[in-house]
Amino acid sequence: MLDAIPTEPRRLESYVAGRWQAGTGEGQVVTDAATGDPVARVDATGIDMGEMLRHGREVGGSRLREMTTHQRAMMMKRIGLALMERKEELYAISTATGATRSDGWIDIEGGIGTMLSYASKGRRELPNAHVIPDGPPEILSKDGSFIGQHILMPLEGVAIHINAFNFPVWGMLEKLAPTWLAGMPAIVKPASQTSYLTEACVRLMLETGELPEGALQLICGRTGDLLDRVTCQDVVTFTGSAATARKLRNTPAIIENAVRFTAEADSLNACILGSDATPDSPEFELFVKEVHREMTAKAGQKCTAIRRAILPRALVEPAVEALRARIEKTVIGHPADKETRMGALASTDQVEEVRRAVEAIGAEARVAIAPGSVPEKGAFVAPCVLVCDDPLTAKAPHEIEAFGPVCTLMPYDSLDEAIEIANRGAGSLVASVFTDDTEVAKTLGRGIAKLHGRVLFGNRLSAKTSTGHGSPLPQMVHGGPGRAGGGEELGGMRAVKHFMQRTALQGTPDQLTAVIGQWMPGAARRETEVHPFRRSLAELEIGDTIVTPARKVTLEDIEHFANFTGDTFYAHMDEDAAARNPFFEGRVAHGYLIVSFAAGLFVQPDEGPVLANYGVDSLRFMTPVNAGDSLRVQLTAKQINPRETDDYGEVRWDCTVLRDDAEVVAQYDVLTLVAKQQRDL
User: Fold this and answer.
1) Where is the Aldehyde dehydrogenase domain (predicted)?
2) d(Cα 72, Cα 488) in Å, to the nearest integer?
3) Which of 3, 145, 410, 457 suits 132 as a labelling partner, its CA being 20 to 30 A distant?
């Protein structure tokens, strides 16, 4: 079991090439944000960064790449569930970072939830394979003998994650999730101020025994010459200040080797109250509530926190008074106390940085709500609200981020002004718009989207279900252009692909089928005596095909289908009307009649390994079918996708419906669930 934070500083260790190792230098003492007491000593002097990279590349990477995407996803699920079982150990340590229980929930359970979400998305959205097709095949020759296909495969380097102090658990797990799902090992370097919590979480993950050797390494302290050793197969991610991001981005090895570098940096996020709001409207209340919450959650030390609150000029003073009422009820104190609603900043150094930033912003703004009293010990700062009366000419409020419980109100006189003010942030992670007017939402949304990674709209209808301004979600992009760094740390499969190489394959269909492990259009088909539906996953092979007998479509079939289903669209029922249609020469068969007849032709009806049909993908009707036409089906096993924890898997079949054995009239993928082994019947 992990113990709570000790009263005497403990020397943190780095996890290097499969062993825990302490630094050999004096290091840096980090303190409890709420009490100022020493917590840990942080030092990585003497750590061999070259050994870490070699171990990750040669051991961790190879072992992760031996696993399929679903195996890696299941590994992440087991780790996430194990962390959830021991979350209280992390909560006990988290208070030293200045986080209240609710702050810790964002960091700890939010991080674990992100990993579990990626584990689920990986199993749902990616094939259980080593090679991931990216998009459909491209037919590059008239006869189909030369085709192209983009694929994704893991980079064969190490992902180096340099993280910020404000979310020592979430900041690590939200990056590890897409990294591991992609098949890359990682080296995590947390910010020193809160690295003791990151180290504790790493120890818990390693104790699960789920991680392949080399998949995760940890640096507690400085990175030394680590970034001087990166290659084109490595990835570097950074969360922190824009100034540090620029410095790291210009590391010679990163530039010379075209190393993938992504940053999530300073962000002067905006919240806009629509021009339709009034002081007694629900949207005004939501706006004030959100600004207050983003000022006080994590003591305002969130990369997504609202720094600029933009609102109609007439509503500035009502907003100040509404914020004052909320701030006066906000209890500031030790984060472990149940009555506390706002804890401390992460370190005493941060207190001075916030004060300097407020002073600089105050040169072009007035203090509307001055900071109140706070506990003497610890890194406490009370909320501060400023008002910049002329935000279109001011500079400091759009350039300086006070990384704490500070927000500047900015009035506008038109929606165009509101857009210009928001965009003065020069690139932000998120903006929110509170309005009940769809035209206002359209104008503001289209006006600010280009300079914001995410735009959240809020009103009375979504008030109970919205995740709010400051909550990054694993399904949605977390990142932003310009000042915000240009990265996309989250965003579903977008983030996973950042750790994979996209390669364009070109060749014959048979060659690409062999490389990818998925049947390509034009590749060889194997017609067998045994119907493919009689084969289990253990027996079925890519390319197994059935070519069905033909079935003639009659006018009686068309009329029966129309009357039976109720689809009496004129093109099926009225010869003259159908002939006037530019696509038809006369009455035609229903598209779904064609699909139904196709199923009747290729399905083997007996009980067997095929368990269910669960859908079709990419259905297209290519050519009209008239009464008298004969239809035949080619059904080919295209992709076999076994499920890791079930006794069945998914088979994707290429279904081609032909008219008179030559012309393609319909093309689609049929999806079935098939037993892994023959069933005892």
Assistant:
1) 21-456
2) 21
3) 145
**CA torsion 639→645→646→652, rounded to 10°?**
-10
d(CA 589, CA 62): 54
Residue 509: alpha-carbon gap to chain centroid? 33
Please give the helix or strand (H or E) that residue 507 lies within, else none. Answer: strand 500-507
Taking the CA atoms of 452, 454, 455 and 459 in sequence, report the sign of the dihedral they define.
negative
With beta carbons less than 8 A apart as the criterion, state whether 111 and 169 touch: yes
Alpha carbon distance 402, 381 (integer Å): 11
H helical segments located in 480-582: 493-497, 509-516, 555-565, 570-573, 575-580
pLDDT per position as a tens digit, 197-223 = 999 999 999 999 999 999 999 999 999
Residue tagged active-site, from 303, 384, 388, 407 = 303
- Residue 631 to residues 402, 522, 555, 627, 666, Cα–Cα distance (Å): 70, 20, 14, 11, 10
Spatial CA neighbour of 1 closest among 209, 167, 200: 200
Q: Which of 264, 290, 294, 650 is catalytic?
A: 264
Give the integer Cα–Cα distance in Å for 216 and 202: 8
Q: What is the dihedral of CA 280, 285, 286, 292, to 10 degrees?
A: 160
Contacts of 390 by beta carbon, 8 Å cutoff, 6+ apart: none
- 11: enclosing H helix or E strand: strand 10-11
Q: Is 466 helix (H, G, I), strand (E, B) or coil?
A: coil
Helix, strand, coil content of the chain in percent (nearest 5)? 35, 25, 40
d(CA 563, CA 175): 56
Please count the CA atoms within 13 angstroms of the CA of 202 that sit on its side-chain side. Answer: 29
CA atoms within 13 A on the CB side of 555: 5
Nearest partner of 592 among 574, 575, 567, judged by Cα: 567
pLDDT digits (tens, 9 = 90+) for 247-273: 999 999 999 999 999 998 888 999 999
Q: Which two tokens stand for residue 676?
A: 């892994």
Q: Is 303 a catalytic residue?
A: yes
Amino acid at 487: G
**Banded model confidence at residue 2, pLDDT cuts 50, 70, 90:** low
Dihedral of alpha carbons 218, 221, 224, 230, sign = positive
pLDDT tens digits, 337-364? 999 999 999 888 889 999 999 999 999 9
CA distance 631 to 665: 9
264 is catalytic: yes
Judged on CB neighbours under 10 Å (0-12, 13-18, 19+), 285 is middle
Q: What is the mean pLDDT of residues 503-508?
A: 96
What is the model's pTM?
0.91
Integer Cα distance of 53 and 230 in angstroms: 8
Of 115, 101, 265, give the one whose Cα is nearest residue 180.
115
